[in-house]
Here is the input.
Amino acid sequence: MTLFGPELQTTITMLYPTNPNFTQLLESFGEFLEQEIMPTAKKIDEGIFPRENLGKLFTHGFTSMAFPKQYGGQGLPYPVYIAAVEMLGMTCASTGVSAAIHGTSCTGIAFYGSEEQKTKYLKPLIQGEKLAAFALTEPHSGSDAGDIHTRAKFQDGSYILNGKKTFITNGGEADVYFAVAKTDNGPCIFLVDRDSKGLRIGENIEKLGIRGSTWTDVFFEDCVVPGRNLLGAEGQGFEYTKHMLQIGRIAIAALAVGVAQIAFEKALSFSKERVAFGSPISQFQMTRQKLADMSTEISAARQLTFRAAWMKQSGKDFSLQASQAKLFASETAMKVSDQVIQIHGGYGYADKYDVHRHWRDARMMTIGEGTSEIMRLVISHSLLQ
Ligand SMILES: Cc1cc2nc3c(=O)[nH]c(=O)nc-3n(C[C@H](O)[C@H](O)[C@H](O)COP(=O)(O)OP(=O)(O)OC[C@H]3O[C@@H](n4cnc5c(N)ncnc54)[C@H](O)[C@@H]3O)c2cc1C
Here is the structure.
């Protein structure tokens, strides 16, 4: 199997017809993922944090792909990174979510950070020396992110943070927490080092899918953050967060396409091998209809995702397209992975065959980085403006 499959190749060639380097780079990145990351996925799904996978990914330049060269990035176009994210989704979605949220955090500094923050944080983050977490959600406010209760008070050159965050991916493993908290001037984002006084990480929260990435509460208890660790300007944190999430949604859409694609490929090959009533189940019209619908929906999800990535790369407003891609790709991943279990019959339900992992992983993607309902709100708001 090649992860950099024909449709992904066509998409990249369509976008960059005169640059064969991108195709070669992605082909070799796909080979690395297939050899090094894919074989670990079932084990990681038992709840093992993919530290080793992240290390290998970072060494292979995954996080640095789309960041500027001056901060140690490779300066590649965003759609090339998105193709890499899709392939990562095919191999291990737990590693993918952990790396994607790290990437979302990095974009925050790239856009809004001071030169000092870029040198101190962005460089080691995109080169994989440090891992990031994004701490926005609170126990009583997820979708309604404007209603956060975490507070920051400026005192003697530092901010003192108090509050509780929940559902934080990479919690306990991250070196830097991007914490959203309100001052009297409004929402802000702070870069909080793991060893900051007053930062406490809760127990890992057991979950349905994406079981390898950690997921914890994060407590700020008179947590002291140097004034220079405020990202951008006071009061702008909500605008920054919306922008970062819009970018993050393209990455989640790409992961969802990857999850749907690998699940589909398992169903396709199983349908050719499994015999019932004297013929392979792929000969039955009802199986064929499922396969045809799945492949069409995956293609559509992929194209929506790359359209959003291309618009971001072109400097256009991409919030509508990112929400459409995230909505359609995550719901497609859910539908496809459900049908894939059906095609596998009892084998799809058994742990041993590692098929239901994709359904459990896909289930997260309609919730994290904004639920499907919130995507529909953003889309309709944009249409009615
Ligand atoms: C695996 C995973 C990883 C995550 N990682 C992170 C992370 O790293 N950092 C972080 O900050 N958060 C993270 N989250 C949290 C995630 O962003 C929130 O769960 C999500 O935004 C929804 O918030 P909530 O869970 O509080 O649900 P709520 O906002 O309470 O929503 C409950 C239900 O009501 C619906 N709803 C809410 N408002 C409306 C409305 N106006 N109209 C219609 N329907 C509505 C929602 O769509 C949902 O179906 C993660 C979540 C998951 C599942």
